[in-house]
Write a structure and sequence with these properties.
alpha+beta; eight-stranded antiparallel β-barrel; 1 helix; 46% strand
């Protein structure tokens, strides 16, 4: 009886792990650049999402630009959904994106 219970427990554990969307594996921490970046005047807000996408708000217009991005070291390559590309670099915690200078938005304490 003990062996049957042990086998059923092992089977249930395996099924639960396989049913989990991530296969039961721990999720990696998001890239340190993920989050909201904002110009000093607040007119442009660019959110780098953990799934490799970005959404940019301009003068209150949500999702004015959207697309995907990749990170290599401190360099970012942007591929906008409209077909154009752009680049950015993070230096000393500041994101220099083409002609824009964006700062990490402070999270409320």
């Amino acid at each position: 009886m003990f062996r049957i219970s042990l086998h059923l427990l092992a089977l249930a554990t395996t099924l639960l792990a396989c049913a989990a969307p991530d296969g039961g594996r721990p999720k990696p921490a998001p890239h340190p650049y993920v989050g909201m970046w904002v110009t000093a005047d607040g007119r442009i807000r660019q959110e780098l999402l953990a799934n490799g996408r970005y959404e940019e708000e301009r003068d209150g217009r949500k999702r004015a630009y959207t697309g995907r991005y990749t990170v290599t070291g401190t360099h970012l390559d942007y591929y906008d959904d409209l077909g154009f590309t752009a680049t950015g670099d993070v230096r000393d915690g500041v994101l220099y994106h083409e002609h824009l200078v964006l700062y990490r938005e402070e999270q409320p304490a």
